[in-house]
Amino acid sequence: MKRSINFKQRTPGSYSLYILAVAVIMLVSSACEKQLDVKNPNDPTFGGNVTTEGGIAAYAKGSVYWNGFNYGNGWLGDSYFSLPWGYRELMGDVVGGGQGSNNQTTTMGVPDSFVADPSNAAATTFTNASPQATGIIRGFNDPASTANGNNALYYEWTSMYAMINGCNTALEILPTITTLSADKVKTVQAWCYWWKGYAYAQLGSMYYAGLINDKSATINNKYVDHNALIAESDKQLKLAQTTLSGIGSQGDYTSMMTQLIPSQNQTGLGGAPTTAQFIKSINTLLARNILVNRLAPFVNGSTSASISKASIAVISAADWAAITTYCNAGIGQGDNVFTGRSSSSNSFFSATAGTVASIAAASNQNTTYKVSERLVANFGTGDARLANFVTTDGIFYGDANTNTTRYSLVDGVTKGLKVPVLGSKQPGGIEVYIGPSYEENALMLAEAKIRTGDVAGGVTLINTVRTYQKSGVAALATSISATAALTELTKERGASLAFRGLSWFDARRWGWTYSTANGGGRYGATLIYNKVVYTNAKINYNFMDYWDVPTDETGKNAPAAGSAAVKNPNW
Predict the structure, then answer these.
(1) Is the dihedral of CA 117, 122, 126, 127 positive or negative?
(2) Is the pTM of this model over 0.90?
(3) CA 199 from centroid of its chain's CA atoms
(4) HEC-encoded secondary structure of 314-347
(5) N or C end of the chain: which has fewer CB within 10 A?
């Protein structure tokens, strides 16, 4: 097996929510100065380990940054942002995999078929002999494949349930810390509710079914469908919002928040948000929960496309109204949000291999992740943000055809870019948007406006985001058609939200990832086939829209009577 980054050689084992309920999980302070010795949650002396303000702050911080974003993800790269996000970026066609089958990175993003030139299909058709849904997702969804690092379904599941378990434990410990002021207690509560809401949002947006656990070290085998997971996310986010609204002392709040966020994150827009800014992030995530879990087809330039065999409903007028309401109260320019940064040592992700973007930031001849031709095509001629990419490293010819690319992602910090840096291997060089951002909020609102008749208002927001990111491109005319505006919207989301773990959700809800036989597909795409660059390709991805539950879980924690299906019935 060819490996182009430093893989950590370990056996992942068969961890599941079942095992997480009884395992010893080490939660450490991501301030990187001390390790908090947290023992088995079932141990009756456990509470004695966390008795002070500093102890509960370190525990609540470790629940998120170490249990959620580092635990179990040292297989490809070294964090949640390199491995679970990596599969999303592969399926969202932000990157392709390298040669060979590195943890299914080559195969996960390969479509069922494509026609590079529809005018000459006989000479330009590619067909995948091992379709993703049955060949990769179901073919490797077993404990043996997990042990060999080949089960893509495993990592997101264990990461987010580890985070939920840690936050539940922190909430249970909190009442025993009698030295905390009421507002510091509320701050920790809001923190835990927010991250539980975040975790359920990730799970409900990826898996067909899952589990809802309100207590630590408990086993639950009543599986619910992904809609119920999103509803639980909304519930937790609204609990966080209500709790934040009840905080009276901003001093106590800020004092606690600065302890909860790793110090290296507290730069740029990653500083401790005010309570008002925190509530704005909640509103934006509530809007995202609706947007990414509804179909809003835009296939081959048509908003009237109809997708069959989908696991989600078509977005409604009421959904667009709710998204608009949330986004109007969402993140604005300059607001502090939840970001992540690497540091030179002991970080919860490394500078060189902690994110998809850092792994890709080198010559395409050597990297595990390769910049997709479709990603670069989102940036128009003259866009200053194209400085993030170069063609000087030549063409990488991938095993799977769609992985072939002319582009490499540069180290934007080393190059001294004046536009947002997409990739870097320098400590702290990438501002990783863990939660929502201003650009995401603005573009959700833009799409809602366009879809509900205010095309000019939507176009204005697209222009604003491009100006905010210093693209230097001419403003779009506000008089363009709704179809033209949506085309620009899809491109701008691909450009300004690249490497933020969102492109897969966009491609799915626009209908692109569904089979062309069921009304989906991507049209007018750029790809290289047999050493020829084509710009009007038709891609039939046919990717499973919501993943099956990992059998690492269901094998040890069999579904109770009345549970939701744990395998996607549409595939």
Answers:
(1) positive
(2) yes
(3) 11
(4) ECCHHHHHHHHHHHHCCCCCCCCCCEECCCCCCC
(5) N
